[in-house]
Amino acid sequence: MLDRLNDLEVRSRALEPGAGERARLWEAAQTYAETFLQALPESPAFVEKDCPGAGLAGFPIPEAGQAFSGILETLAAQVDGVGANGASGRHLAFIPPSSLFAGALGDLLAAVTNRYAAYYFAGPGAVRMENQVLSWLAHELGLPEGSSGNLAAGGSMAHLVGLCTAREAAGLKAADYPKACVYLSEQAHHCLVKALRVAGMAESPVRSIPTDAAFRLRPEVLEAAIQEDRRAGLHPWLLVPTAGTTNTGAVDPMEACAELAGRFGLWMHTDGAYGASFALTELGKAALLGLDRSDSVVLDPHKGLFTSLGLGAVLVRHLEPLRKAHAFQAEYLPSPPEDLEELSPSETTLEFSKHARALRLWLPLQLHGAAAFRAALEEKLLLARYAYGRLQEMPNLDPGPPPQLSVLAFRFLPPGGDADAFNQALLQRLTTEGRVFLSGTRLNGTFYIRMAILAARTHKEQVDEALERLQSAAARLA
């Protein structure tokens, strides 16, 4: 056995390279990253290929290690060289991601040091960092001091935490679900209904409330639906307004929603995954009036705060139902003292093997300051207004609804033929060219092209190029 252990130790130590080998790997990785970043201004926003990434099949997991240079070549060709370029300022599709360099450094440091961020006893600094970030976010959104929350892997997971918290606050049991009614806009994101299903509440009636001409939830229809359900003996339980829809960036009337939630005893869980971060600006605060009255809010720092993918936040003003839904104690865990001043993230989410993901936001905030983020967010709001003004000047074009935040939905009107088919063909042509990346949607059954202005590297130059390429491609297609 001792001989076998010695042999295994020698071989397993290959997993921990020495200083010289680390220096070589650092240098190669830095060169790869720097080459990517320097090429980024001219790199395509989307690369369309047949069978993208399929070359990985020819690069199987080996029994013996391979040269790092070959690994990086495969990474460049099969992963980083296909599909959407999430670091590009010309990525204007869906809700575009970003990739702050400082955030990437935060991820790197978090991975190297591997601090545990779920339980205060084991990772006090990492836990305090997450709670500091959450406290700052809650303050910026106008939630009261003492609000709690969790940094999740994204908006969908954050919504799951929020909905489970709302369920506990209402004291709902499985037998109650078929009568526990949920109200949301017909423009709401699909992940909300999915989260209800994952939480075991698929039987809960979901009321999709119609929207007005600006695609905002109609409060009078919402009130009528609540009243009708109450008369039918059902239990109106949850209201989920959207602070920035994916389709058009529409903001539901928060103040009216909060009034109705308060009057009828509903928990108001606001989907601000895309739009809530704009509350850091004065323009955004005006558009999001009433957001601060939410019982819980979701926002995605990997959207409006420009971190790389994998960071969502849920903020909750009531700690008790948040802990009731998620806290657990086991005999192998040290019992936290009653007067512990820091809440462990393991008490506010299902996740227990949690790394220090707060570092990807905390580090950029410390390095650049909040003012830089406020400036970038206001820039995006004004860029959307600028782009809308230019769209209004273009001939044969329906500019769509005025932007409430930073998403535009518009369509070209060809002189003849099917307008939907024309706009779909136009979008496909742009996607194939790959220089700019936009997406499409349907509003009231009609196809629209979407431009979402949110990426950190999107400035006036990128917006002007996208508009010019759209107009040129439309002319050629016509």
Quick recap:
With 478 residues, this protein is α/β, with parallel strands linked by helices. The chain has helices spanning 2-12, 19-39, 68-78, 101-113, 124-141, 155-170, 190-198, 219-231, 254-264, 282-287, 301-304, 319-326, 359-368, 370-393, 419-433, 460-477; strands at 46-47, 83-84, 148-152, 180-185, 206-209, 235-240, 267-271, 296-299, 312-316, 397-398, 407-412, 439-443, 446-452.
Q: What distinguishing features does this structure have?
A:
44% helix; alpha/beta; globular; 16 helices; Aspartate Aminotransferase, domain 2; 7-stranded mixed β-sheet; 478 residues
Chart the SSEs and their pairings.
Elements: H1 2-12, H2 19-39, E1 46-47, H3 68-78, E2 83-84, H4 101-113, H5 124-141, E3 148-152, H6 155-170, E4 180-185, H7 190-198, E5 206-209, H8 219-231, E6 235-240, H9 254-264, E7 267-271, H10 282-287, E8 296-299, H11 301-304, E9 312-316, H12 319-326, H13 359-368, H14 370-393, E10 397-398, E11 407-412, H15 419-433, E12 439-443, E13 446-452, H16 460-477
Parallel strand pairs: 4-5, 4-6, 6-7, 7-8
Antiparallel strand pairs: 1-2, 3-9, 8-9, 10-11, 11-13, 12-13
Helix pairs in contact: 4-13, 6-7, 6-12, 8-9, 14-16, 15-16
